[in-house]
Amino acid sequence: MAAQTGLYTAPVFLGSAFLLFGLAALEKFVNLFGANIPFLNVFPRQVLDWAVTLLIFEIALSLRQLIEVQRQRNGE
Fold first, then answer.
1. For residue 38, is it within any domain?
2. Contact 10/61 with Cβ under 8 angstroms?
3. Around Cβ 52, how many Cβ atoms within 10 Å?
4. Other CB atoms within 10 A of residue 13 CB
5. What is the pTM of this model?
6. Alpha helices in 4-43 (DSSP H)
7. Is the pLDDT of residue 1 over 50?
């Protein structure tokens, strides 16, 4: 197995996206009872938009990493 050449940050984006998704779901659930999370000053849909944006970045980085691995295997 070849050594990885650079820092692969897609798992950081994936973890952050899941954290934001959970925070948005928790905020929406708490809002049903008339309360809110004190440190969250935006609507849950905005937090969900941030999570989706991070997932898009994660997909792009994963595809780029996959292309680099395929090029290395083909000897290009």
1. yes
2. yes
3. 13
4. 20
5. 0.75
6. 10-31
7. no
